[in-house]
Amino acid sequence: MNFLKGLFFVAITCAAYSCNEVKSQKTKVVENLALEKAEKQLSLQLKVAEKAERIPRTVNSKGEIHWTHNNFDWTEGFFPGSCWYLYEYTKDDKWKNAAEKFQSLFENHKYLTTNHDLGFVFNCSFGNGYRLTGNKEYVNVLTTAGDSLLSRYNPVVGCIQSWDVVNGWQSKKNWMFPVIIDNMMNLELLFELTRLTGDKKYEEVAITHANTTLKNHFRPNNSSYHVLDYDPETGAVRSKQTAQGFADESSWARGQAWGLYGYTVCYRYTKDIRYLEQANKIAKFIMKYEGLPDDGIPYWDYNAPNVPNEPRDVSAAAITASALIELDGYTSESYLPFIDKVLNTLATAKYTAELGKNHNFILMHSVGSIPHNNEIDVPLNYADYYYLEALMRYKKYKLE
What we know:
The chain is mainly alpha-helical. It is built from 13 helices and 9 strands.
């Protein structure tokens, strides 16, 4: 009788709410449990980080925790950003204090003009801090970082330069003005600064960069090239290549996620229908790609040569899930079934580490750069950050 009652309950539930809503209710439960587990895991990591007074980035090839570089590291904002999300979730001042402590370690990087990643670094840390506390000093930090970022803008090209090409491995590529799809993620800082300061110069650069990228970076199937090199004097495209993907014409998984997230943000601030359309197109490329594994977690490159014997990239999945939750609120497209699948998958033991394992990172199995033989099948602080962001967004969205 109990079994029959259970069947009757499921039938009534599906009839009343639809199977998709039942799946979303399941994800709601998973999301709460995942946030609880994440808070416990990062509490352990916080103790280690506080003792070292350094910011955790990943795990190195020797199985040891790898910290961010002190001079500058594009990932340095993600750990304090995760602390801000856990402060938002728990209301525990422990996380607020931790976020403030660790972001103070790189505050002076707001003056750097040699790197495009200032949006990543400062919006994820000080930006979340301002959102949650209203601390006006954070606006001053963000504005300085934004001005430093604008120094890399070339009005002839219509883009912010991603990498300098004088030193390092970039200098060997014969690039003159490289722009990577990742750079779409730095535009949120600029859009937000126009909102905060009233100065339209930030938004104008963000829009021009987004438009130039929209024009040149995407293939007919709506996948994205990783790197476009421009002539800084004429604005002409010199080459379309990759740096972290399998090949120039392949679709690097995290790059597709960056584009999806970036154009969703652009639509948030501008309501320009072109950005919404592009975000939807990228989402469909990702979700409907023939080689995407059934669990929704992509291989590091959609065209990697040895699929299915290729590393997955959990960071790409987490970024995609977070972006899709926001995008779902702007469109008639229904992304919730795919979001549910990815979030439920990431919460399993296959991708979420046991408490106290994985050097206390939340997620396992991400990829930094296989062509550089760097950070392969390891935890990454930005995978954790975007996973927490996705869980927090899901918590607020539709099922409150």
